Amino acid sequence: MPETAPSDILIVDDEADIRELVADILEDEGHGTRTAANSDAAMDQMNARAPDLMVLDIWLKDSRMDGIEILKTVKRDNPNVPVIIISGHGNVEIAVAAVKQGAYDFIEKPFNIDKLLMTVNRALETSRLRRENAALRGQEGEQAELIGAGAAMRGLRQSLDRVARSNGRVLLSGPPGSGKDVAARYLHGQSDRATKPFVVVNSATIEPERMEEVLFGVEHEDRAHDKGLFERAHGGTLFIDEVADMPVGTQSKILRVLVDQAFTRINGADTVRVDVRVVSATNKDLKREIEEGRFRQDLYHRLNVVPIEVPGLDSRRDDIPELFKHFVDVLHKEQGLPRRDLSEDAIAILQTLPWPGHVRQLRNMVERVLILGADSGPIAASELPQEPDASAGDNRDQLSAALAGLPLREAREVFEREYLIAQINRFSGNISRTANFVGMERSALHRKLKSLGIVTLSRGGARMATVDDVEDGGGDAEE
Ligand SMILES: Nc1ncnc2c1ncn2[C@@H]1O[C@H](COP(=O)(O)OP(=O)(O)OP(=O)(O)O)[C@@H](O)[C@H]1O
């Protein structure tokens, strides 16, 4: 068997004899098997964990869906799982139709053991290759789906849609993990260049001495040449990630390319003309980088024709349930992790956590919960890590230590302040929704906020709660 870990094969057949026979044969060969007698059981098994392969009887008695419907669902939700159809003597035509619909192959009953094993091994090898290819594509970059129906993401999508129609250079700013890379891919996908290449250069990960070779390519003595990323992106988009980390020497060369739309390769004499739209991203303050001499002001002006800010997850907590569900679906498709819903109390906790690592941190948490948690049923609050990062844990310890040293009245005040700030931030500064959740009248909540010195302020397009440490000023709690 080519795989090192035993393969996981799901056998779906309404006849117990056939299920057991196929399972015995496959287990004797070292494969792992699971079985299902009808479509509901098959779907439960699929959702718990996607198998490496499905062996599916086309006729299923007492089943909500027939084999073809199950096949369609698998091909839609888990396209990398190959399906081998078992067909009776009289329905080979249906089996052939199933292959046209995406089944890997079919075997006829009564089946020959060698043929069964050969088909299974070939299908598993195909599935392994598909998974490897999907992983490689994942390294190149994920799909350009920009998830989030909240106001901040709607605003971002609108800006990207508008600028996509032009050819203007865009500078995306936002904290690490907020989704600048996804925003750049989305922009490319919405533009006239969508069918042309989207090429990424991450300035922070390329050795500075190799940067120019990577960007502009190299010409050899025999006039053969290696293409650089500018040339590979011809007709499409070049995404310069972490642009602040670009070596200063290379910055002036990039500036020249932006002015001339042409360059020469390293050791080359010929001028290479390119039509490339440059989108760049940074999580640093480029103005400060300019002041401190690390970034060229003229390049900044060339790159920053349209500045677009990607909001951090802490200012769009209303998107958390949707993002969570999206990552569960992605991880189910990519890694076969269980497809699970979120319980209401888990949603409440997720929306009050601090998220210093933004969407990337949320994705990592989803992965951890799906790997370590139960196989099915909604995710409970108890399955979530206490805090998504160590520094937030320190805050909580500090808070409990501080509370322990206070008389009850003051401790209650400190707790109420922390609790209400977290809840208001969770509902993006909306006092009515906060009041509804915490179980207070809106006017009573307003009075409470005032007495605790909590105000809401606009920050990066979102309303956030904070403690008003400026006497009688700073802002007012409002929707
Ligand atoms: N709106 C979104 N919809 C779907 N997935 C998202 C969204 N925003 C971020 N992600 C996912 O979160 C992860 C981090 O996003 P991304 O790499 O785009 O962040 P970034 O801001 O470019 O980070 P860095 O500054 O570290 O390069 C990726 O897995 C990405 O697919």
Automatic annotation (TrEMBL):
SUPFAM superfamilies, per the entry: CheY-like (SSF52172), Homeodomain-like (SSF46689), P-loop containing nucleoside triphosphate hydrolases (SSF52540)
Annotated Response regulatory domain residues: 8-124
BP-aspect Gene Ontology terms: phosphorelay signal transduction system; regulation of DNA-templated transcription
Spans traversing the lipid bilayer: none
InterPro entries: AAA+_ATPase (IPR003593), AAA_lid_NorR (IPR058031), CheY-like_superfamily (IPR011006), Homeodomain-like_sf (IPR009057), HTH_Fis (IPR002197), P-loop_NTPase (IPR027417), Sig_transdc_resp-reg_receiver (IPR001789), Sigma_54_int (IPR002078)
Signal peptide: none
Residue positions where 4-aspartylphosphate is found in the record: D57
Protein keywords: Activator, ATP-binding, Nucleotide-binding, Phosphoprotein, Transcription, Transcription regulation, Two-component regulatory system
PROSITE patterns the UniProt entry points to: RESPONSE_REGULATORY, SIGMA54_INTERACT_2, SIGMA54_INTERACT_4
An example Gene Ontology molecular-function term: ATP binding
All residue ranges annotated as the Sigma-54 factor interaction domain in the record: 146-371
Subunit structure: Interacts with sigma-54.
Protein function: Required for activation of most nif operons, which are directly involved in nitrogen fixation.
Descriptive protein name: Nif-specific regulatory protein
Classification of source organism: Bacteria, Pseudomonadati, Pseudomonadota, Alphaproteobacteria, Rhodobacterales
